[in-house]
Structure formats: C-alpha cells, structure tokens
Amino acid sequence: MMTLNLDGQTLTIEDIAHFLQHQSRVAISDEALERVKKSRAVVERIIDNKETVYGITTGFGLFSDVLIDPSQYNELQVNLIRSHACGVGQPFSQEVALVMMILRLNTLLKGHSGATVELVDQLQYFINERIIPVIPSQGSLGASGDLAPLSHLALALIGEGTVYYQNEETDSIYVLQQLGRQPLQLQAKEGLALINGTQAMTAQGVISYIESENLGYQAEWIASLTHQALNGITDAYRHEVHAVRNFQEQIDVAARMREWLADSQLTTRQGELRVQDAYTLRCIPQIHGASFQVFNYVKEKLELEMNAANDNPLIFEEDNETFVISGGNFHGQPIAFALDHLKLGISELANVSERRLERLVNPQLNGDLPAFLSPEPGLQSGAMIMQYAAASLVSENKTLAHPASVDSITSSANQEDHVSMGTTAARHGYQIVENARRVLAIECIIALQAAELKGVDKLSPKTRQKFEEYRKIVPAITHDRQFHKDIEAVTQYLRDDAYRQL
C-alpha cells in the first residue's frame, strides 16, 4: 500500500489522485509535527496569561468582543461545532469528504492553527481507517471558511456526527466504539482550527479538476472518431498552423490529434472532398486547447490553496517572538474565481461535442451516413433522441456556468459582509463535469456507430484500439433499444478512467 506523506507545504493534485487510485494511507512528517506542537504551545501560553484573543478566549463573529470564562474554553469549541453543523441537501461524495479531511490535516500541519497533536492524530486515523464523515453539500457561504460543511466533518471526529464506514452509513460514535477509539476532546481554539478554511470548495474543486482534465484528453480520441466518420481534413492540425498562434495548449492538442489520426484511411486532405471543415472539426485544437489553459490555471490556484494556512486567527513565530493575528485567509474568493473559470472550460468541451455529434446524425451534414445512424430509417429512430439529451445537458450547463462568485450576501449581523460563494461554484462545477461527461459519452456511442458504418478497418491504429475497448461497453446499434443504459455505462467507464489511468 502506498503512503502519502503530508508536510503542510508540498501536497499536489497528483498526490491526491494517486491516493484515491491506490487506496493509500497518510503519514505526517516529523518537521510538520514539531510545528504543530510549537503553535499549540502558543495557545497554551495565551490561556495561561489570560490574554484576549479571538476564538480562544472570546466568542465568534459578532460575539468576538464577548470574553469567555476560562472554565468554558473547551465547551466554547464544542458549541461552535454543534451550532455550525447546519448543512443541508445531498452529501458530498465520499471521495470529496475524504479529500476534505486530507486538506484540513495538511493545513493544520503548517503550524499556524494552534491544534493539538491529538486532533492531528484523530484526522490521520479517520483518513487511514476510511471513516468518512457524511457532509451535506449545501449551506456554505465560502467565507469565514466552509463553516457548515467543515462542522459536519468535525462532528464525526468528536463522535457526534454520522459517517460512512465499510460502505454503510452509521453514527460516528458507534464506529469509534467498534474500533476501540475515543472521540476527540476538543481543546481551546480547535473548533476554529477545524472549520475556518476553504476545504469543502477546494476538495470538490480538486475532484472536479482531476475529472475535467481527464475528460479533456478523452474528448480528443472521441473527436478523432467523429473526425474520421466525417472524413475530416487533417491539414488544419499541422504544427505550423498552431506554432504561429503561440498558445502551447493549442499546439499540444493539435499534436495529439495528429497522433490519434495517424495512418487513418478515412481522413482527407484539403481539396479532396472539400476545402475546409466546419469549426467543430477544424478548430478542435483552438477550442480544446483553450479549455486546457483553464485547467492549468485552476490547478495552480488549487495547489496554492491546498498548502495554505487559511483559518483564523493565525499563530506566528519570528525572531523568538510569537504573535497571533486575526485575518481573513478563510475567504474563498481566489478559489471561487478559479472554480467559476473551470465551469467555462468544461462547459465548452460539452458544447463542441454536442455540435460534433449533431453533424454525425444530421443527414444534411453527415455525408453518406444514414439519418440518425438508424439501421432502418423511419421504422427505427436510431440516435435521434440521444442528440436531444446532449442538447439538454449543454443547455443546462449554460445556466450552471453563471459565476457564483459575482454574488454576495451579508451574514453574522453584517460583521461578515462579503462572502465568496465559492462552494456554490464548486458544486455547480461538478454538476457541469457530470453533464459534460454524459455529452461526451453520447458522442462516443454515436461516433463508434458511425465509424463502424464507415469501416472499422480503415480507422487509425490508435482509434481502432479505442473502438475495440469501448465496443465491449456498448454494442453496435442494430435495432432501437433503451439507449439510456448505454449512455450510463459509457459515462461510468469514462469516469473510472480518470483514476484507472494513474
């Protein structure tokens, strides 16, 4: 079993992807653990000296000026978690909740949060034992941190929430009792250390990024099948064309398209059948390449946040002097912008895919292919309504792609008067990913059928391999059937591929 070593500074999206693929465990570096101990010592000194510090010796939000009796510091933290655990709606996926715990642990290891070693150990234990909190996905404003989602995470640690364990949903306390593990006893500052942060939006963003990038690569071979079924022109993919545009992602897509189409007997050169193709074929490097530009931007911002101290207050030590500062690193605006941007990049992959598959089924556009690729046009509808389904999904994506980050609403009696809505961007973004994957699954099914009608033996060697692989998932259309089953089967296979290829 592989081990993911956490140090609070070097975690990457590739690390997370491999962790999920290989069912890894997490380990903590000695240096990171020392930082945790030092920051906790500062909290203990604050308590001993009876200093007034937000969230340690005072209340929260509008109650930041209310001093708390020292005998109630621990109770304050438990009350915080209980009162803030008011998430609603469907829960995040188990993958997202697991990544959320990893990211929260990694943040604590930076040594600016004042958490105890016991808290760090409890998080590590939950991750490695796959005790995964049930975390409702709605209810976060994306500033002051993902308060509601992270409170549900924290509830599980203290034995008051619900969890997924061994494929069952049950009470956290029951699982802990089964394993002979004690619930965490929260100490001063630790409630805040757990819930002030952006781990809900960032964790969902990481999963969305992993699957979006993979969809970008999948879209290329699927488009290559469509290109061949329509006898597309390869000249538009020549390196010289893209080199003079300067965008590296565009150059890379064009190179991969040339590789997918190499030695095909179905492609054409300009002037053989027509002078130029429609944009959805001719401009694949420009359109897909722009999406990869988005993915690269999003990856950079996510990885910065994954290794950030984003709770409040933060503890520092410089020149043998320690100090605590209340700031706003929990504000999700940088990630909200990034995830809204991701929505555009993945939406466009679906938009252009739907336009390509429309060309495959439209008898006015598909050359000599039968209308809707029907085995008996008129008696059987073939792929007619699959195009409807794809059109519906891309239209839905257009509404989901509206930026959540342009909105804000005040909270905590106007103390918290600007919020990011980054978690809304994250949730809508993953819905777009799922919609886009289904659109590409539909193009895949239709392109497989069209390629078969044109002659599988004429496909390029690389796309012939994909044809054989996916024909095991979805059979040829020899008669009308319940195509939704095919769509879901291909969709699931495409999703699994995001982790299978690691």
UniProtKB/TrEMBL annotation:
UniProt keyword annotation of Lyase present: yes
Show the PROSITE patterns listed in the entry.
PAL_HISTIDASE
One Gene Ontology molecular-function label: histidine ammonia-lyase activity
Keyword annotations from UniProtKB, A to Z: Cytoplasm, Histidine metabolism, Lyase
Cellular component per GO, a single term: cytoplasm
Q: CDD domains given for it?
A: PAL-HAL
The protein's Enzyme Commission number: 4.3.1.3
5-imidazolinone (Ala-Gly) crosslink, residue number(s): 143-145
> Cross-referenced InterPro entries, in alphabetical order?
Aromatic_Lyase, Fumarase/histidase_N, HutH, L-Aspartase-like, Phe/His_NH3-lyase_AS
Q: Which cellular compartments is it found in?
A: Cytoplasm
> In Gene Ontology terms, what is a biological process of this protein?
L-histidine catabolic process to glutamate and formate
Tell me the SUPFAM superfamilies matching this sequence. Answer: L-aspartase-like (SSF48557)
The principal location of this protein is cytoplasm
Give the record's PTM text. Contains an active site 4-methylidene-imidazol-5-one (MIO), which is formed autocatalytically by cyclization and dehydration of residues Ala-Ser-Gly.
> Into which EC class is this enzyme placed?
lyase
Recorded metabolic or biological pathway in which this protein acts: Amino-acid degradation; L-histidine degradation into L-glutamate; N-formimidoyl-L-glutamate from L-histidine: step 1/3
Q: Which residues form a coiled coil?
A: none
Instruction: Report the residues modified as 2,3-didehydroalanine (Ser).
Output: 144
| Catalyzed reactions | L-histidine = trans-urocanate + NH4(+)
UniProt similarity note: Belongs to the PAL/histidase family.
Protein name stated in the entry: Histidine ammonia-lyase
Q: Which organism is it from?
A: Staphylococcus simiae CCM 7213 = CCUG 51256
* This protein's encoding gene: hutH
